[in-house]
Design goal:
Elements lengths: L2 H21 L20 H13 L18 H13 L8 H14 L2 H12 L5 E4 L15 E5 L2 E8 L10 E7 L10 E7 L5 E5 L10 E11 L3 E2 L5 H12 L3 H23 L5 H29 L7 H23 L15 H8 L10 H12 L8
Parallel strand pairs: 1-4
Antiparallel strand pairs: 2-3, 3-7, 4-5, 5-8, 6-7
């Protein structure tokens, strides 16, 4: 950056930091640190109220173009916003899927009518979204989707099952990848539909996890309906659009995520000092390696921002997902080793976990959700390194 760009960036950082400090007070003073992976159930109402407070002040969708309700922030400013948000220990966002996944997809691929209908309620946090991708036999192998939709007059009728659907109980809408061409297979014949969740044809069943919480859900579509116009792109474009959405998912918000990772690592180091585990040379070496891994992760994420600045991120974003998934899982294992035998004892009955136990259990899923390690390695080998495709 030149001197003028640096000055503008620091001015924006000061603006974000001051607003967060002034507004994480009063009724929101106790919202700091609420929510997050393994704790999405926590204080949902106050977090929703907080995010609507942000919307009223113009602090949602900061990276969206101004004509679509955003601030038109540069990639660098978006990074600053997410970093400062994490540094302020502000509550976990409830509108992440709408703001960071569906919204950019509609902006890039939607019609003018779809932008006018769906973008303003996302900016205002008036409608929440969930993602209808994975199925019991189509998780990492998303191209095996079997949920079907057929056009019946002026409506699509959808039947099938989705699984691992985050925030399904809270969501008003879901973007659903389904098979709309009978007899099609793999990537062909898929479409990307926008489906209202609050209707008789949708049943949601929470999945109780090892943490005792239920961030993920099963969703059953039994002749559910949506308007004929609620399709993004043309019928058959579903795979292309779904992959673009996944690219947006691994955007600038990951740098804010890494601030949270740093706070967790600092907590584990402090725990090691208090328990005396830091005197164990093997554990001390692992702590150092974890710190080095986090620094390398940040460097890779900053490098990948150039691709985001040029448009939708490419397959290189799979590197970031692979790196942070493994690193975070290993941090959970390290936390338990620092705790030692005490890590096997719950804080209270029947299943009252402390933060480190919850971190360990939830991070077992980090290398699976949002694209499993196996699939990320295939993408990197085939699309980045140009190696032969995996035999099918």
């Amino acid at each position: 950056m030149n001197q003028d760009e640096t000055f503008r960036a620091e001015g924006f950082r000061a603006e974000v930091r001051a607003w967060l400090e002034d507004n994480l007070s009063g009724e929101f003073a106790h919202a700091r640190g609420l929510g997050g992976p393994g704790r999405e159930h926590e204080a949902f109402d106050i977090r929703l109220a907080w995010e609507r407070h942000m919307a009223a002040a113009g602090w949602t969708c900061v990276g969206w173009p101004k004509e679509h309700g955003g601030r038109g922030a540069s990639v660098e400013q978006q990074v600053i916003f997410h970093e400062e948000y994490a540094l302020a220990d502000a509550p976990a966002r409830v509108n992440h899927i709408g703001e960071n996944l569906l919204g950019p997809t509609i902006i890039a691929f939607g019609t003018d009518e779809q932008r006018a209908r769906f973008l303003p309620p996302i900016v205002a946090v008036e409608e929440l979204w969930c993602q209808g991708y994975s199925e019991p036999n189509a998780g990492s192998d998303l191209a095996n989707v079997q949920t079907r939709a057929e056009l019946d007059g002026d409506r699509w009728r959808i039947s099938g099952q989705k699984v691992w659907t985050s925030l399904a109980l809270e969501a008003d809408w879901s973007f659903v990848v389904c098979r709309t061409e009978p007899g099609s297979a793999r990537h062909r014949g898929l479409s990307y539909l926008l489906v209202p969740m609050r209707q008789d044809g949708v049943e949601i069943r929470p999945i109780v996890q090892m943490t005792g919480t239920s961030e993920f859900n099963e969703v059953f579509f039994d002749d559910a309906v949506t308007d004929a116009g609620d399709i993004v792109g043309a019928p058959g474009d579903g795979w292309k659009i779904a992959m673009a959405t996944l690219g947006f998912e691994r955007g600038v918000a990951t740098l804010g995520q890494q601030v949270g990772f740093r706070r967790e690592l600092e907590g584990v180091i402090d725990l090691a000092r208090r328990t005396g585990a830091i005197d164990d040379p093997l554990l001390r070496d692992r702590l150092v390696r974890s710190w080095i891994g986090l620094e390398a992760m940040r460097s890779n994420a900053v490098r990948s921002m150039a691709g985001i600045a040029a448009g939708a991120p490419g397959p290189e974003s799979s590197i970031s997902k692979l790196v942070w998934g493994i690193w975070h899982r290993e941090l959970g294992e390290l936390a338990m080793d620092v705790l030692g035998a005490a890590g096997m004892i719950a804080d209270g009955g029947p299943y009252d976990l402390n933060d480190w136990q919850r971190l360990y259990l939830f991070t077992r899923s980090d290398t699976i959700y949002a694209g499993s390690n196996e699939i990320q390695r295939n993408i990197i080998s085939e699309r980045v390194l140009g190696l032969p495709r995996e035999a099918r």
